[in-house]
Amino acid sequence: MNEPLRPSTLGEILDRTAQLYRGNFLLFAGTAALPLLCTFALAIPAGVLFAVPGIAAGGAGSVVMIRGLAFILAFLIVTPLYLAIYVFSIGGITQAAVSVHGGQKLTIRAALAGVRPRFRTYLWLLVLQTILVAGVPAAIASIILAPFIYLAFRSGAGAAASFAFGFLAFLLIAAALVAIVWLALRYAMGMAVCVAEKKTAWESLQRADKLSKGTRGRILVLYLLIGALSIAVSMLSYFILLVVTAAASVAGKGSVAAIVGMALGAILYFVVNIASQIVLAPVPWIALVLFYYDQRIRKEGFDIEWMMEQAGLVAQAPAAPTPGAESNLPLPVAPPDTVEEP
C-alpha cells in the first residue's frame, strides 16, 4: 500500500478516490469506456437494420413486421454482447482499483485479462445482485398489489375505492423503492469482495452484507454525490445544446446555417453526455474498493495484519499475479539451503 492503513472518514475516502483516479486516469476511463463505446458502435448498424425495411418494403404492414423481426434479432444479438462487455468493464475497473490501491501498476489490457478467468463468477454476481436488490422487492410489491388490481377492474370501483387503491399503490411503490435502496447499500461492496478475495458470487454478497454494517450511510452519501454530479453535467450538456440551437435559430429557420447549427448542437450534446458518463463511471467502483478496505481495517484489523506481513512476522499466502501488472512490493528472498553436518 502507498498510503498508511488506518480508518478513514468519508472525506478522506473521496479524496483518496480522486487521487487514484487522477494518477491512473487513462486506466480507469479507458476501462469504463468499453460499454458506452460498444453501445455507440452497435447503434449505427441497429439503426440501419431498423431503417432499411421501411425503405425497401412497400406496405405498412410488412414494414411493421420486418422492423419487429429486425428489433428482435438486434435485441438477441446486442443484449448478450453488451452484458459481456459491461461485466468486463466493471470487473476491470474493480481489479484496477484493487491493484492500484495495493501499489501495482496496471494496464487496461492487464485489467481486462484479469477478468477473463472469473468472468462467469462476475456475471453471476451482477445477475444475483440485481435479483436480490430489484427483483425481490418488485416481485413482492406486485404480488401484494395484484389482487387489488383484479378486484378494482372486476367490480368497477367508484371514486373512493379508486382513490384508496391509488394510495395503496403509492405506498407499495414507495416501500419497494426504500427496500431497493436499502438492499443496494447492503450488497454494494459485492464486486470489491469478489475481486479482492476471489470468493464465489453468493459468498461475496454475504460478506459484503456483513462488511457494509456501519458504513451504509456513507455509501448512500457517495451515491447521492455522484447522482448530483451526473445531473449537473447533464444540465451543462443540455445548456450547450440550447445555446447552439438558439444561435442557429437566429440565423434563420430553414437556412443552411440553422440546420448545420442544430446538427452541431446535437453532436456536442451527445459527445458531452458520453464523455461525462465515461469520466464518472469509475468513481463509485473505486470508492467502493476503498470502503471495502476501510471496513476491513475497522472490523478485522487489516492494517495490523498488513504491517505484520510486510515485517515478515506472518507467512503471506502466495497470490496469483495479475497479468501485465508490475508491483512495487519487494519480492520474497528464498533462504539459503542448510546442510546438516555429520
What is the element layout, followed by pairings?
Blueprint (H helix, E strand, L loop, with lengths): L9 H14 L1 H32 L3 H42 L2 E2 L2 H8 L3 H37 L3 H28 L3 H8 L3 H11 L4 H35 L5 H25 L1 H19 L1 H9 L15 E2 L15
Antiparallel strand pairs: 1-2
What is the strand arrangement across the widest sheet? Answer: 1-2
Give the number of helices. Answer: 12
**Unreliable stretches covering 5 or more consecutive residues:** 55-59, 327-342
User: Mean of the pLDDT scores?
Assistant: 79
Order of helices and strands: HHHEHHHHHHHHHE
Q: Domains counted in the coordinates: how many? A: 1
Most strands sheet: 2 strands, antiparallel
What class, by secondary structure content? Answer: mainly alpha
Based on CA inertia axes, which overall geometry fits?
globular
Helix content: over 70%
CA gyration radius, whole angstroms:
26 Å
DSSP strand count? 2
Give structural notes.
It is a single chain. By secondary structure, the chain is an all-alpha fold. It has one domain (10-300). The protein contains twelve helices and two strands. It has helices at 10-23, 25-56, 60-101, 108-115, 119-155, 159-186, 190-197, 201-211, 216-250, 256-280, 282-300, 302-310; strands at residues 104-105, 326-327. It has a two-stranded antiparallel sheet. Helix 3 (60-101) packs across helix 7 (190-197). It is globular, with a radius of gyration of 26 Å. Residues 55-59 and 327-342 have low confidence and may be disordered.
